[in-house]
Amino acid sequence: MRYPYILSTDSGCDLPLATCHKLDVQVLRMRYEIDGQSYTETMHEEDLAAFYEKMAEGAEVHTTAINIKDYINFWTPLLDRPIVHIAMGSGISSSYQNAVSARGILREAYPDAKILIIDSLGACMSYGLLVIEAARLRENGATPEECVEAIEAKRLSCNALYTTGDLEYLYRGGRVSRAGAFFSKTLNIWPVLNLNDKGELRAIDKCRGRAKAFRRVAEMIRDLAIAPETQTLYVCHSNAPEAAEAYKNAILELSPFRDVSISQIGTTIGAHTGPGLVTTFFFGKDRQPG
Known about the structure:
Blueprint (H helix, E strand, L loop, with lengths): L5 E5 L6 H7 L1 E4 L2 E4 L2 E4 L4 H12 L4 E3 L4 H8 L7 E5 L7 H15 L5 E5 L5 H15 L4 H11 L3 E6 L4 H5 L5 H9 L2 E7 L5 E8 L1 H15 L7 E6 L3 H14 L4 E6 L2 H7 L4 E6 L7
Parallel strand pairs: 1-2, 1-6, 6-7, 11-12
Antiparallel strand pairs: 3-4, 3-5, 8-9, 8-13, 9-10, 11-13
Helix pairs in contact: 3-4, 5-6, 9-10
């Protein structure tokens, strides 16, 4: 089926490539480096596992925001139809602003080009869920403008909760102090993090040990989720499948989600959090300032 407009996003949404193909969503693949060698994200589980194994072995990993030229090259062949693009949140990346700049350049060369850009205010599957919702809206006949309006109205209701027992990678990325990372490991402290209303990652609690952290997250989800029995709970992890399973079970004890999807966190966020992170995404009460 040829839709009247194109939906696009970037690989940081952490949807499997097969899902994007099924939804007819065009994906701009992001790049990363391992020990100075450049790679393009494949969005395949087996490649993500290898990525985290290299990190665990001490490889130096770097990621970069999508630049203006990348967007121009990505969108130019698609300009025969309007485009609705869902970008990684401006709270954690300059990709959104680069997308806006690229649109301005393209409009000079193609005055009739129509590119609508949504700042997801999210990371990982928190905007993957918005991509899925946008595809549903398009399937049901929403215009590009209606799709944008609906997604922007819903983006803050997409909640994310993260936890990990290893803050070394967050320290390297400037998210926590050296002392914070040291004492977290020494005292077995697991911080709980979420995204605020600007899409910024923040620590909101800390627990002694994994089981207590998982229980605390489950309690938060119980209080935040709206009609969990009607929605899928998305659990993502960075090469920690056993932890993801335990995380899922702790959540389901308190909240009756309809079903659960478990998948890997992509390289964009994983490069900054390292192996061992577990996170969950769901629709609920709007995220708050912080």
